[in-house]
């Protein structure tokens, strides 16, 4: 049985998923102030500036040729907070 050859699509897909996960972690994670009382988990929400940074990051990755495109969906409590398609098919 001959091994299958790919054009690197699996690697690009894995890289895009890793980038999306990293971007999501960056948006959700917020720096904690010393001596501040931690916020209740239910009161956390995404900032518009943080979501705009996600779009800018993905656009930059496409422009630099690292990924051909991406679809980003971020949900909070089962409801879409951010959904955008980038690049070409």
Summarize the structure.
The chain is α+β, with helices and mostly antiparallel strands.
Q: Which properties best describe this structure?
A:
89 residues; alpha+beta; two-stranded antiparallel sheet; 2 helices; 2 strands; 19% strand; elongated
Structure, explained:
It is a single chain. This protein is α+β, with helices and mostly antiparallel strands and 89 residues long. The chain has a domain of 56 residues. It is 40% helix and 19% strand. The protein has a two-stranded antiparallel sheet. A hairpin with a 2-residue loop joins strand 1 and strand 2. About 13% of the residues have low confidence.
Number of strands: 2
Strand content: 15-25%
What distance separates the N and C termini?
31 Å
How many alpha or pi helices? Answer: 2
| Rg, nearest Å | 17 Å
Give the integer mean of the pLDDT values.
Answer: 75
Shape: elongated
Largest sheet: 2 strands, antiparallel
| Strand order across the largest sheet | 1-2
Binned, the helix content reads 40-55%
* Poorly predicted runs: 32-43
Task: Reconstruct the topology from this structure.
Layout (H helix, E strand, L loop, with lengths): L8 H20 L19 H16 L5 E8 L2 E9 L2
């Amino acid at each position: 049985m001959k091994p299958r050859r790919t054009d690197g699509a699996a690697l690009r897909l894995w890289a895009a998923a890793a980038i999306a996960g990293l971007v999501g972690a960056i948006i959700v994670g917020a720096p904690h102030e010393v001596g501040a009382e931690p916020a209740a988990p239910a009161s956390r929400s995404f900032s518009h500036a943080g979501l705009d940074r996600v779009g800018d990051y993905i656009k930059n990755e496409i422009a630099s040729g690292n990924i051909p495109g991406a679809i980003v969906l971020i949900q909070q409590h089962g409801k879409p907070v951010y959904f955008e398609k980038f690049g070409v098919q």
